[in-house]
Design brief:
By secondary structure, the protein is of the alpha+beta class. It has three domains: about 40 residues, no CATH class; about 100 residues, Outer membrane lipoprotein wza fold like, CATH 3.10.560.10; about 80 residues, wza like domain (wza like fold, 2-Layer Sandwich). The chain has eight helices and ten strands. The strands form three sheets. Strands 7-6-10-8-9 form a five-stranded mixed β-sheet, with no helix packed on it. The chain has a three-stranded antiparallel β-sheet with strand order 2-1-5.
Length: about 270
């Protein structure tokens, strides 16, 4: 019985140690090594390439007010957000063939291009009948989504560049139960959907392929084993271990007393 109690105690201690959340599991900008990967390849920021189904906000600024109102459909406010149906009435959808239709120009090819390249293309074509003007082209559906152990949300991207740490901060950061070592990145590309797994803890993630978040990205963060056990600190683990061991000892003592108190059958010799 004593041997079984020791085995039980060892298992409880082992599970408690595994269940604890340590600083190594939580901290960012750690040095590589000892379970922390090294992302040595430097990629840098890459402009987002437009895809089928993207919405573009386009506004022409001209010296002549009548020309500007004509090309802008008389809109008097910023419809650069594609989250509601009203805004989409003033946006331009990139169709399956990669084109969108713009007044007085006709079809403009946008698939695989950056918004900057589309801007230059439109300015070249509008020069035939406009003078002293400029074109503003924005991606309207500039959002990313994040799914964690305790929340799911879609967040608007406020600037051209957004790092993974800024994305986490905008979403309220990860909880202590989030597994930072196996974050899945779901990204739409011209060739289809790709899924990559990365560790956000190493310092070397800066300027790696996982450092910048692109529009329409999805970050999926699964929870750690501590979420199931409810043990997140070493003190909690010790308390749980001692409590389990004490309960086992009490059950053993009570059981032994009950067994000893029972009348023993007597045997008579023939």
């Amino acid at each position: 019985m004593i041997k079984k109690t020791k085995i039980l105690l060892f298992i409880v201690v082992l599970l408690s140690a595994v269940s604890c959340v340590t600083t190594k599991q939580l901290n960012y900008f750690q040095k590589s090594g000892m379970g922390i990967p090294d992302y040595t390849d430097s990629v840098g920021f890459q402009e987002y390439r437009l895809q089928k189904g993207d919405y573009l906000y386009i506004k022409v600024y001209a010296v002549k007010k009548d020309e500007m109102e004509l090309l802008n459909d008389g809109q008097n406010r910023d419809f650069s957000n594609a989250n509601d149906a009203v805004s989409r009435l003033f946006l331009y959808l990139i169709e399956e063939d990669g084109y969108f239709e713009y007044p007085y120009i006709g079809q403009v090819y946008a698939l695989g291009r950056s918004t900057r390249e589309v801007k230059y293309e439109m300015e070249m074509q509008l020069r035939d009948f406009l003078t002293h003007f400029s074109v503003d082209v924005k991606l309207a559906n500039r959002t990313f989504s994040i799914i964690t152990d305790n929340k799911s949300q879609r967040v608007q991207i406020p600037a051209e560049k957004l790092t993974v740490f800024q994305a986490l901060a905008m979403s309220g950061d990860l909880s202590q139960y989030s597994d930072r070592s196996k974050i899945k990145l779901v990204r739409q590309t011209e060739s289809g959907t790709i899924v990559k797994t990365f560790d956000v803890r190493p310092k070397s993630i800066i300027d790696s392929e996982f450092y910048y978040i692109q529009p329409n990205d999805v970050l999926y963060v699964q929870h750690t084993f501590a979420k199931h056990t409810g043990i997140d600190h070493i003190t909690t683990a010790i308390s749980a271990t001692l409590g389990t061991a004490s309960l086992g000892v009490i059950i053993y003592v009570v059981g032994k007393r009950i067994y000893d108190a029972k009348p023993k059958p007597t045997t008579t010799e023939p």
